[in-house]
Amino acid sequence: MIKNITNVRGFKCWGAHSGIKSMRRDLAIIYSEVPAAAAATLTQNKVQAEPIKITQRNLANNQAQVIVCNAGNANACTGEQGRLGAEAMVRVTAEMLGISEEDVIVASTGLIGEKFPTEEVVEGIRVNIPKLSTEAKAGSFVANAILTTDTFAKEGFVEFEHEGITIHMGGVAKGSGMIHPNMATMLAFVITDFDIDKNLLQSTLRYCVDRTFNMITVDGDTSTNDMVAILANGMAGNTKVTSESDPGFIVFREKLLEILTHLAKLIVSDGEGASKFIEYKVSKARSEENARKLVRAISDSTLVKTAMFGRDPNWGRIIAACGNAGIAFNYKKVNLMIGDKTHMVTVLEKGNPTDFDKNYMKKILRESHIRIHLEVNTGHEEAVGWGSDLTTDYVLFNSVYTT
């Protein structure tokens, strides 16, 4: 049996239709039976949706007990009416569950600038909180209730042993377009029964997000609503982990990285109009930070994205993008390889172009999974990122998004 967020101890959830979207689930609730350590990374877009502001305030103490999210309306650029709507979501959720308003994480996703349907959402919360469940279908309902332009639900689950206890971790995510996380319209919610200090949880989430969700791009646009949130309720009963030197911390961080990487890749693979999933790797760099900057520079390049869509082996665009990464870069030292899942072709070796078979390269670029690997040859650090191509379908879809 496939496991999901309902297999995490002490959590109940539900996803339902509240009336925002036509005939589709649009309201998700994830509830911990006890107060949980909580952490989040939020969009750095200067235009922030109303739920982002509330969640940032409520997480000042790194504790929460419930995540409530609506889809179909971003509640961004909605003024006073939107602020009151987001606050109403928090208030009714807290009332129905008998918890503090400060323990509510609230999120929204959908169209920007549309009047927020407060009455429908609030009534949906009232009707559906009594339905919170540990049944497997409830986890799937949640995964589907947060979708917008996504073509499939995105779920993940991992478990590991610690102190003779099986620790569970599950997550859901949404995202297809407006994907260019710059965190401090993608959402990801992760829950675990691991017991970990709430301040350590925040720094650990930041570490993992920097290496996963902050390493993906579809179109280069950072949403007003980006949020990755995690709740750790400690109900596994392990000895609380309070420092990075404690037993169990490293495996916890590895598993959090694993589930976030999985969810991040699912988002990229569902990129609006995308025909290719592209993995970018930079190795032998002076520092991990430099490697990440190079990955982001390449994956963000519109010219690289369009070349991949057109199956054009124009590797010069990749090297040109590296020169715009904002760090020292000497192309005369680098090796550049392009390929698919099974074959890699060296197109640049220590700064010298190779005599590769362009027809063979075009054949490789027909594949749906492409790899680009740059060896900087200035150190020993590396980074990996993921992105999609930029297609005519993307342009057509987003040219009529609201009509």
From TrEMBL:
Enzyme class: transferase
Binding residues for substrate: T148, K174, T185, E272, N398, T403
UniProt gene name: argJ
Assigned GO CC terms: cytoplasm
Protein's recorded name: Arginine biosynthesis bifunctional protein ArgJ
Enzymatic reactions: L-glutamate + acetyl-CoA = N-acetyl-L-glutamate + CoA + H(+); N(2)-acetyl-L-ornithine + L-glutamate = N-acetyl-L-glutamate + L-ornithine
Subunit details: Heterotetramer of two alpha and two beta chains.
GO molecular function, one term: L-glutamate N-acetyltransferase activity
Site (Involved in the stabilization of negative charge on the oxyanion by the formation of the oxyanion hole): T109, G110
Entry annotated with the keyword Ribonucleoprotein: no
